[in-house]
Structure prediction request, 151 residues.
Amino acid sequence: MMSLLLLGAASAQAQLASKKGMTLEAAKQIAAAAEAEARKNKWNVVIAIVDDGANLVYLQKMDETQIGSIEVAQEKARTAVKFKRPSKAFEDAVKGGRQVVLKLPGALPVEGGIPLMLDGRVVGAIGVSGVQSNEDGIIAAAGVEAFGKMK
Prediction:
């Protein structure tokens, strides 16, 4: 009887996936790199880092950034995680006439959200809001670049 329980436990373990996840320390480093890019350009923004389930891990609002950008940065990051692509892809689709994109639940079609990929899997995303969307994208890309160096 005991051997059957042990065998069943071993089978259950074999079915579980092992995956890397976003840590607070990694999120802080990603945000620091994004903040450095924003400061270099004298842009005030909100930077949001989410995990692979689109849950907020870290958020920072630079001084003098409008409070509306708090939610927008988070939604850009969530869009990138949920759809495994930059939020700019949806902005480009809308610009190209694909208005149906506006009806996709959880898709914010504004540049500034980029997924954080590791070994072909999304482990989180960065979302930036506060300046022009292309500038938000530049800041987010700096965070992604820093993440790439952590691997």
